[in-house]
Amino acid sequence: MALISEVSAIVPGEEFRVGLRIQHDEGFHTYWQNPGIVGIATQLNWSLPEGFSAAPIQWPFPEKVDMAGHPAHGYHREVLLTVTMTPPATLPSGEITLEAEAIWMACARTCHPGQQKVSLTLPVASTSKPDPRTRPFFARADAELPKALAEWQAKLLTAPDATPIQLQLTPPDGWGGSPDSLYFFSTDGQVSSDQEQAVAPGPNGSLLMTLQRSEFSPEGKTSLSGILSSNSTLGTISVRY
Predict the structure, then answer these.
(1) Beta strand 2-5 pairing with 16-22
(2) Where are the domains positioned within the chain?
(3) What is the structure's pLDDT at 135?
(4) Which residue from 3, 74, 212, 223 has the highest number of Cβ atoms inside 10 Å of its Cβ?
């Protein structure tokens, strides 16, 4: 794992992005923000200079992964977990070092927890520009951030905390995807990762997804949010109970 910057220098008061680059050994995976039944989401615990702040991790779209027969959500591919940094309006000249403790779980047939200090030193300057060495990694990370499925209609047919969760989805005209390939990645863990997700035809061209509520589901949620994926669809959905 390595911490990289999108820009060549820090400009006082000007936001910039850094990213934790994760390259997996063959057969291994790490975990998404909601791992599911097993696993631990990768964390970054920052130790920043005075006046700096770090936004939450921006998560690329997840994959279905497997740990010893337990379905979960994570990454086999190389990913970049991006974070927006905000520096203070005034900074001394010289260099600034950003440090964090990265914590992760890497699994294949067995799991191996990891912990590592990562750091990045950048000069302070009055102007900055994209770093050509890292720009391809950030461009790919941007392409892998799920966008809202604005043309889809979604409606929850069940009450908060009920199980199973029934989600009615109406795809846009001409969607042409396969209902059997639909899968819902629950952002906050309401939906179990180790139970099958059933899809059936609904009224007026809609699709009815039956999602089993996780035994570890947070209680009292007023909405369901996540990423809907299929062989032709990938994007975020958020709908209120």
Answers:
(1) antiparallel
(2) 2-143, 153-240
(3) 97
(4) 74
Residue 202 burial (CB < 10 Å; 0-12/13-18/19+)? middle
Half-sphere exposure of 122 (CA within 13 A, CB side): 30
| Residue in 187, 105, 199 with CA at minimum distance from that of residue 146 | 187
Residues in the chain: 241
Contact (CB, 8 A) for 190 and 240? no
Whether the pTM exceeds 0.90: the reply is yes
- Contact yes or no for 5/120 (Cβ under 8 A): yes
Average predicted confidence (pLDDT) for the chain: 96
- Smallest CA-to-CA distance from 123 within 34, 7, 40 is with 7
Phi, psi of 22 (to 5 degrees): -115, 120
- If you classify domain 153-240 with CATH, what class do you get? mainly beta
Q: How many CB atoms lie within 10 A of CB 147?
A: 9
Superfamily the domain 2-143 falls into = Thiol:disulfide interchange protein DsbD, N-terminal domain (2.60.40.1250)
What is the DSSP track for 74-95?
Answer: EESS-EEEEEEEE--S---SSE
Residue 135 phi, psi (nearest 5): -55, -40
